[in-house]
Structure formats: structure tokens, C-alpha cells
Amino acid sequence: MDYIAHIRENDRKVQTVTEHLLGVQVLAEGYGEKLGVSHIAGLAGMLHDMGKYTEEFRNYILQAVYHPEAPPKRGSVDHSTAGGKLLFEQYHSLPKDLSNKQDHMNKMILAEVVGNAIISHHSYLQDFINHDI
């Protein structure tokens, strides 16, 4: 089964999630290159829509396109946080071997920054530090 990222309105051509993520990765790497962070930007581009790899999102987008008289509520399927959650789960724990603790801490911080950009790509950046908000 192909997971769907977008369906073009005028001719209903499907862009798969894989095509979309690889295309965004290339664009993001190009933008990030100017700042010396091409791989970091590319990682964010590659993971930003990981949540579209679900049957729930596939049904959501098909319903929206093929049944415009009864579309699903816009934003009712969370597709934008999965990539950020993946980074958090992969890098937000201390390793058993603490011989290279600083390197791991740097990766944790980077994962949090990139993850925040990913989970916030349809809204404002989240504030995970200020507890008053």
C-alpha cells in the first residue's frame, strides 16, 4: 500500500509520503547549507511528516479529496509530531556507558531542537522550558 502525503487538486495525482519526505529533505539541505547545517535541516525535512505513514492519515486525505461534501475536520489527524517523538525516544536517555557523556548530551540537545521544529511545523515553536505558559 502507498501512503499518501498529498493529492493534487487539478488532476488528483498522488504524491507518496516517501516522495514528499525525500523532496523536502533535499530542499531543506539546500537551505541549511547556507548556515552550515545541511544535514540537520535535512533530518528535519525527512522526519517532518512521518505521521503520514498511517492508515488513519491515508483515510483522512482520501476522505478530504474524494468526499468534499463531508470532509474530515482539518487537523483532526496528527501527522506532524511523530518525527519529533521519534527523535526524542531515540536520543533522550543517558547511555549506560557514560565514557562519552558530553557527546551524548550534545545529541540530546540537538534532538530536542530539531524535534521541536518538527512537531511545531504547523504552528508556533513550543516552549518546553517556561513552565508559566
UniProtKB/TrEMBL annotation:
Keywords: Antiviral defense, Hydrolase, Metal-binding
InterPro entries cross-referenced by the UniProt entry: CRISPR-assoc_Cas3_HD, CRISPR-assoc_Cas3_HD_sf, HD_domain
CDD domains (UniProt xref): Cas3''_I
Ribonucleoprotein among keywords: no
Superkingdom of origin: Bacteria
Keyword field contains Transit peptide: no
Signal peptide (from-to): none
Pfam families: HD
PROSITE patterns on file: HD_CAS3
Domain HD Cas3-type residue range list: 10-133
Protein name as annotated: HD Cas3-type domain-containing protein
Record organism: Paenibacillus helianthi
